[in-house]
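Risk register update: the risk of archive-format incompatibility is retired. Evidence:
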Amino acid sequence: MILTGPAIAAAVQTGEITIEPYEPARISPNAYDWRLGDTLRVCAGDLDAASPTAFIEQPIPTTGLVLQPEMLYLGLTLEKTGSETYAQMLNGDRTIGALGIWVHVSAPLGHQGHAIRWTLEIRAARPVRVYPGMTFGKLVFLTAFGAPVSYQQQPAKYASTEGIDISRLYEEIPGGAL
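Archived output:
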C-alpha cells in the first residue's frame, strides 16, 4: 500500500523515513516531490553491457543546461532518501513528461534499507533546458509485507552508491571487464 502525504510527513518526524534535505511543502497527497541535483554524466560513445560506460561529468549551471535528444544522461537526485521500514518508488511527473523528458523509467524501485541519492536515467524528446534543484518527479513510499531485509546488508552491486552510478552489468557478464 502507498503512504499518504500525512503518513510520509509523520514517518519523517519519527525517523522511519529519511529525506535530506527535507521540505514539508514538497509533500503531496501521496508522494514527496524530489528535485534534480546539480551534476549530469553524459555518456560518451557506444554503450556496451560488457564494459564500464565512458562518460563526461558536467555540472548543471544555475542558468540551466540544454538536454539534447538521442543522448543518455545520468543524473542525481538532490535529496538523499531512505527507509528501513518502507520501500520507495521514484518516478518522473507530469510536468517533466510534458516537457518531453523521460526520467528513471527502468529502475524505479528503492528497496527497504537503501538510503541513497538516486542515479537518474534521463532522455529528452527535444532540446529542453533543465536547472539544478528543479522539481523533477515524485517519490512514493510503500509498505512491505513479510520479514524486512535491508538492502544495505545484501551483497548487491549498488548497495554502496554514493554518487551518479554507471551500469555495472559488466560484473555479471563472463569475459566482461572486471
